[in-house]
Structures are given as structure tokens and as C-alpha cells.
Write a structure and sequence with these properties.
alpha/beta; binds iron/sulfur cluster; 17 strands
């Protein structure tokens, strides 16, 4: 919208004033420079302080001042390198229909937002070359991907066709897996490095994903060393079995999910692989895990379940995992207590937040 250099032409400024109906944008998008030049003078003019979150909040406020209401969410329309080119909002002019119109708009914009750049914490983007899965263990019962896939399928997205069916008003996996060839080269189009969560809408090591396709996913990851990839599986047995066929790139973090002590063997199977960085996702945590052997594990992420039918997590379970990480010198991240309103329950543990990242992983 506006040039990176400090001199915004007067004619541009006047046009933007007219277009936006005020002059406050100058302070939101530009600041007076604080860095002096070689001769200790402050450069004339202003410098751009453009953050996409500031732009989003600015335009939402402008829309709210002009219409009866504006959507809580904005959809970022990105170019091929992932840079935001446009923001799509919804604004409503009619007071009578406002509540329901905004509810619908927020619902649609939120789903689209979730299907694009990730809303999953710890990652910047998701990449889904595979869609569809099968429930495997108790941690899958309230699978977020299953619910989202049901909605995306309902919206007619081809990638999710036949992956779910409705049972008792809820979307359930059918077990149908879609391999999405067109998605394989997406990370190659993102030039700037990202932290990418691989297959948030499936399990890469699902028995119906052919080895040949898994190897192509790894090929993409190897060819894009600017990115760091996180893969998470519950199919640790297949992971271990295929390990010798995989040429592990160093930019891949391999993780297994463990929800209770019944599935501790997944950790041992992960350890048997040659992945460079290994992590555990103890989420949704459904029982105590008091005997973790964290040798050769770089990062542990724990958290409670969120959503409509949550199974509560106990404080002592999280404390125990944190203490085992401290004792065994492993990075620990506590994501959330979860519950029906996860924003309210937050992520504080004994008054503090635990958000360590593995030093090994970050190089
Ligand atoms: S393995 Fe993962 S994606 Fe598949 S059903 Fe379980 S939680 Fe969902």
C-alpha cells in the first residue's frame, strides 16, 4: 500500500487521507525514526512500522466507526510466497440483521482462516498434502481435524471429499484418505523460512498413505531447507517400520502423541528412528505420565483438551511432566489447560508460563 522508504509523497498522503477519511493512519503505519545516521542526525520523515496485525486492527476500527458492526476475523489473502496482499472483512449496515449476519460472517472467516495459515500454536503455517484419517486411540475421540474436515467437506472443498460422514450430528472420519499431489510443492513457493506443521488434517504415517507418497513429502522437506517442519504421529509403529526407507533431513522435527500411560511405547519407537529432532506431544493429556524416560528427546509439549466434550486434565499431571523435563534437562512447553473456554483457563502453571523451545531444534 505504501512505500518502504521514508518519504511518502505528499500526493499519496492526500489521497490516502481522502480514501481513509482521516489522517490517523500516518501514526499507525509510520513512526518517527529513532535510529540516528552516521552524523548522529535523525533522518527526516517517517519510517514504516507496518505489522499486519496493526493494519488489521486499524481497518476493523475504521469499519466499526462507519458501519453498525464489523467481523471479528479478517481473512488474509496471500500471494504465493505467503505475503498478505489483501485483508477481507465483513461489515454490516443494517442494525436489525446485525447479530446473525456477524455470527455467520465470523464463522465463515474463522474456518477459512484456520484452513489457511495455522491457528495452531507453535507453528506459523500448516501444510496438508494428505487429508483424512481414522480414529486410533482415546486421544482421537474429539479430534479437531475431524470436525474441521467435516466443515470443509460441507463447503465443497475437494481435498476433503468423502473424508467424513455425519453421525449423530457430528462429523466422523470415514477412513477415506485423499493424497493431494497439488499440495506437494506449496512449501517450495514460500521463500521465507517458516515453522510448518505437516498434516494437521491427517496422520502422515496412516496405514493408507503409501510409502512412495510419504517419501515425496520428505523430498519436498529436504528441498526446502529454509523451513522447519514438525510432523506428529500416533502411528509410531509404522514410523519405526519405515524409518530405514527415509532419508531424514535435519529440518524435520519428528514427534509422537501420547495421551496416557497405555501408549508410552510410542516414545520408545520414536527414539528408535534416525530423526534429528524428536519431540513429544502429550496433548490432550488424559492421564498421569509419571515415568517418562526422556533420553534422546529434545522437546515436550503438554496440554489439556479443549472443545465441547472435554475430558479435564489434572494439575498434578502437568506438574509431574514439567518436573521430569526439568530433572532430565529437556525443553518443556505447556500449551493450555483447555476446557470449554480455553481462553479463560489460559496456560499459566503455578503463576508462570512454560514456553521453552528446544535449543537443539532451533540450532
Ligand atoms: S490420529 Fe490425529 S488426525 Fe487422526 S484421528 Fe487421531 S487425532 Fe485425529
Amino acid at each position: 500500500m505504501i512505500p518502504r522508504n521514508r518519504a511518502v509523497p505528499e500526493s499519496w498522503q492526500a489521497r490516502l487521507d481522502r480514501c481513509l477519511g482521516e489522517t490517523e493512519w500516518r501514526d499507525v503505519f509510520y513512526s518517527v525514526p529513532k535510529t540516528r545516521d552516521l552524523f548522529l542526525n535523525l533522518p527526516a520523515g517517517r519510517e514504516r512500522t507496518l505489522a499486519i496485525s496493526a493494519v488489521e486492527s486499524y481497518f476493523r476500527k475504521r469499519l466499526e466507526s462507519m458501519f453498525t458492526g464489523a467481523s471479528k476475523y479478517a481473512l488474509s489473502l496471500n500471494n504465493q510466497t505467503g505475503t498478505c496482499m489483501d485483508l477481507l472483512f465483513f461489515a454490516c449496515g443494517n442494525q436489525r440483521g446485525k447479530r446473525i449476519a456477524l455470527q455467520i460472517a465470523d464463522h465463515i472467516l474463522k474456518i477459512r482462516k484456520m484452513a489457511g495459515p495455522s491457528s495452531i500454536e507453535l507453528t506459523e503455517s500448516t501444510w496438508n498434502p494428505v487429508a483424512g484419517c481414522t480414529v486410533l486411540s482415546p486421544g482421537c475421540t474429539n479430534c479437531y481435524a475431524m470436525r474441521l474436515a467435516g466443515r470443509l467437506q460441507g463447503m465443497g472443498q475437494k481435498k476433503y471429499a468423502r473424508t467424513t460422514r455425519k453421525t449423530g450430528g457430528r462429523a466422523k472420519w470415514t477412513g477415506h484418505i485423499n493424497l493431494h499431489e497439488e499440495s506437494l510443492d506449496i512449501p517450495g513457493k514460500w521463500r521465507a523460512g517458516r515453522l510448518i506443521f505437516v498434516n494437521s488434517m491427517s496422520d502422515l504415517f496412516h496405514e493408507d498413505v503409501p510409502l512412495e507418497f510419504i517419501l515425496r513429502v520428505f523430498e519436498t522437506m529436504r528441498e526446502t531447507p529454509q523451513h522447519t517442519y514438525q510432523i506428529l504421529t500416533k502411528r509410531a509403529e509404522r514410523l519405526e517400520e519405515l524409518d530405514s526407507s527415509i532419508d531424514w533431513p535435519s529440518n524435520v522435527w519428528m514427534g509422537v502423541s501420547v495421551e496416557n500411560s497405555e501408549f508410552l511405547e510410542r516414545i520408545e519407537r520414536l527414539k528408535n528412528t534416525r530423526a534429528f529432532i524428536k519431540f513429544l506431544s502429550l496433548e490432550p493429556l488424559l492421564g498421569p505420565l509419571d515415568t517418562l524416560d526422556l533420553r534422546n528427546i529434545h522437546l515436550v509439549i503438554a496440554g489439556g483438551e479443549s472443545g465441547p466434550d472435554v475430558r479435564p486434565v489434572e494439575r498434578s499431571w502437568i506438574r509431574s511432566i514439567r518436573d521430569q523435563c526439568l530433572d532430565q534437562d529437556v525443553a518443556f512447553r505447556f500449551k493450555q489447560w483447555g476446557g470449554k473456554r480455553k481462553k479463560q483457563t489460559g496456560q499459566k502453571l503455578d503463576g508462570g508460563t512454560w514456553d521453552q523451545m528446544s535449543a537443539h531444534a532451533l540450532g
